[in-house]
Amino acid sequence: MGLDKWSCSGCVALGVAARLALFQLKSLLSYLMTRVELQTPASSWESMEEGTFLYQRGISPYQGSLFHNQPLLLKFFVQLQTISSVVNIDLPFVFILICDVLTGYSLFKCCESFLESRMEEEKQLANTEYDKDAYKCFSANRRTPEASAKIVTLAYLLNPFTIISCACKTTLPIEHMLYARLILFCLRKNLYGASVILSLATYLFMWPLLLWVPVSYLFSETPRSNDGQLKKQCSVTSLINGSVVFCILAAMTAFLMVASYYSCNESTDFFFSTWGFQFIIPDLQPNVGLHWYFYMEMFDQYRTFFTLMINSITLLICIPLCWKFADNRIAPVYSAMYFIAIYKSYPTFGDVSLCLALVPMIAQNFSLMRNLLFTFLLFLACLASMPAMYHVWVVTFNPNFFYAISLIYGTVQMLIWSDVIFSMNRREFLYRNGLKYPLDEDGNLKKFTLM
Known about the structure:
The chain has one domain (about 5-435). Helix content is about 70%, strand content about 0%. It is built from 20 helices and no strands. It has helices at about 10-25, 25-30, 45-55, 70-85, 90-125, 130-140, 145-155, 160-165, 170-185, 190-205, 210-220, 230-265, 270-280, 290-295, 305-325, 330-345, 355, 360-365, 370-395, 400-435. Helix 11 runs parallel beside helix 15 (about 305-325). The two termini are about 40 Å apart. The mean pLDDT is about 85.
């Protein structure tokens, strides 16, 4: 059946049915909840249950090291569980399912908005700056925006790891929903909506702090000009606009933190159990991330220095991307999201599912990607080998096997991201230089670079 026979509601219904079917398999869910590749102490439902249990009995869940979610989210789930006991419906699962559905719908709208705007831009440049043959081969209108949006929606809703994350009631669908809404507000240039969503995501998960720079840069866009004096004024205006957006994000996040402070009886224990837990990484339980093994082998006297260095790497990567992509400012936002999914303290397989689903929207043409088959096969090999390497680690008490496969997994994700960025640059290069090999003024072959 072709995609033209599907509707957005049909794609969403298929994703909901898959999640409901898995949710009924209690024995399988019990096993999946024990897998470190699928759940972490920062996102698992067991941690939320522990927090609600302590809170309902008047004990602070932040005094120990078992609960790592924000107080406002905890109180929300406490209310859901209280109502669930009355109506005999698992309302936490219903809420997480709604978040996943909203994510799928938001991705559909994101893809439509992005491709429609790109098509309009390319049509305006097709007769002036772009090579006609290249435009005919790689233009965005080779497939309708609606068809591409359905591919993106199905790629997210039918991803096995998003289905498992939803059925296991992790907090990952909430994070994905906020990211999807953020992208949609950015594409529609809705400053206040994007600020509220990003502030809430930062408050809940800390790592969206890395998105502050690309989002501020996106909303600082001003009209371009060839006049030197006017260009200088536009640069100053852009800097002011970006600073204003940054201040709005800081003010909203600070307000949520203050509200949490007073909700915890003026105690700061919640801060060290949430943001502090994500930044310092005290729990060294193995996961698919790149941090736990490093901290396990590190001398304690160097821990503070390397903690600051490792957590600042992703921020240093995001800043140059903003300068590179002046024409496509959603690319730095997408890149920062991908870096968060790879480099965050406690990642799972489901973290990259949103970024992988957006590959058809960002890359737009798979024929321009260099390593598509290689990365796909290597990705499958990682997924198949991870449980075996974890078993070897448990049997031999040697974590090197599990960490080795997690390093390959991280490498695969960086290859996918770099391939997407390469395809964007290559597409623009072919548009402006044609399908033949272009030469520069000296008669040498022109080159285009990834960055």
